[in-house]
Amino acid sequence: MKVAISILLLLSSLYTCFAQQQNITKQVSDILSFAPEGEWKKGKHAAFFMMIDSTQTYKNKHPVQCNQCYIGGVYFMLQGTIYNRLPLPVINEDSMEVSLTCKSQELKRGFLAINGIDEKEEVLYSDTLFFNNCKEWKTFRKNVSLCGVVLLGLTIGIRGNDTIFTAKKNVGRKKSIQNLWLDRIEMKVNGKNITDYTTYPFFAEPPLHKEDIMMWSDSLPHSFRDKDIVAFGETVHGSENINCTMIRLFMNEIKYGGRKLILLELPLSKMLYVNRFVQGDSAFQIDKISSIIEFSLFSDAWIDFFRWLKEYNSTTKEKVWILGTDFDVSAYLETELDLCEYLLTINRSLQNSQLRKFAQLILKSKEIHQESIAFFQSQNYFEKELGKQEAQLIQTCLQLIEKVKYEQLSRDSLMFEQIQVMMELFSSHRPVKAMIYSHLMHVKYTSNNADQSIISIPFGALCKQHYSDRFFTVGIFTDRGKTLNYHYLKKMEYCLLNQSKPGSLEYWLNQVPLDSFYVPHSLLPTKLLFSRSVGIAPNEMTEWINPSHQMDGILFIKESIPLQKKSLNVSKDNNTFIYRYKKCWDELKNE
């Protein structure tokens, strides 16, 4: 048990290394010779730290250093990506030279991936500039096309030698031996730096008028009320009034719109517990659900919604299911632990040996879950006792663990697979009508992600390809106010939204003197402009988008009010996880 707990602590710390510095603009702002809007971000599974190396000077400035993660005396292999997407100036030429100046130490390979993107956000080409290990400063160059290119996607990828080394005891921390130092990326046309060209022209869309837009109510507009799947994507996480707007909309659409499937951007393994509660199982308690919401960027008002939905389900034959589109990667064995707690709660009244054995198999599996899945599939009991839908969802959770650990699929592709499973599962007799609440980065139709190391297509784009006109996306935008977000996953912190700038989508929307309204697709801007995005961290990022290609409509809420939480100190420490883990094992042993 002690060894297992030590591994859990180490892996949890390693995830913290991966999760930190998501928005790293301050560290790398001067890598580019120009960057009017947009930020550098870390790609998935990036295992390195970035900092300005004040011990070195090159061309009268300190370079940016990428070095190894050091955790518990162990240096992990240098690997990962940073990426950015930015507009090009107006250049009437067919090509330009891109150069990257760097030096490295113990680097196995490195590359600069370059995407040429047109005004519709379609990738015209992908090209790659490779740079090998070089102990001294060296400049690498490549010519790329400018034909039809408006946006440039840049990704710097690195991988150190396949070694992990440990610092000796009583010696103190060593310096990282796998490093990359970056000076700058330059872009020139006929020897002329592109900063000397005219900047990209910000869009000049005609202003919106009150008579053009639609007043927002707590029900879907008639134009898309009959869509099978309606997805709402907020551009900022952590807004109380946006959460409450969605709750009121869900309640109305459940009562009057025939919606029977509600999907939230929460792990499916956790939402199985919530769903049991709203289905009326008295063994599942609201206190446990409250802890799920407490550690999330969802409003505490959802607790009242779950109570309301439980009461509503008690009055109808066709019950509403509420599930999750996401999966938990924040801690090792988190999904397994969620499933085990869920199964043990069910089994307290059933006292079934097969269900108990299944819970044991899930919790003791350290690598793969083929044994758990095989046992589950071999027992007719599970489908008979739990029902076809719930049995399939449990199996989906186990299969997700395998895919997350070993197939390295993107988060959005896995979310899409979950949506597919649930739509098919609940449409066996007749088509189910569903609603999704997530971040716009997931439900939109094109990708802002220039990171070429992963499949970066949003699940909204995958759903649109699969379901065609049956799928409908609405972006939720706000002009000002505050949000409440995580600060390095340890505590919550308020984020004051920056004032919208001319040329931004928020600025254009804010010209209408209404607190909230809906803009149909026919009025959405058709050219590139920039827009804010706030995820789990209290960092406001800027991204370039073409609204008419990203979504079907916009819900605008002028001011964001931050989430109201009982406490901002909501960090989940390792002791909580260990307590849950031990409690499950004790219950399994005592049965």
TrEMBL record:
Keyword DNA-binding: no
Alphabetized UniProt keyword annotations: Signal
One GO-annotated biological process of the protein: response to antibiotic
SUPFAM superfamilies referenced in this protein's UniProt entry, alphabetically: EreA/ChaN-like
Gene3D superfamilies linked to this entry: Biosynthetic Protein domain, EreA-like (biosynthetic domain), EreA-like, domain 2
InterPro entries, alphabetized: Emycin_Estase, Hydrolase/PRTase-associated
Coiled coil start-end: none
Signal peptide location: 1-19
Entries under Pfam families matching the protein: Erythro_esteras
UniProt-recorded name of the protein: Erythromycin esterase homolog
Source organism of this protein record: Bacteroides faecichinchillae
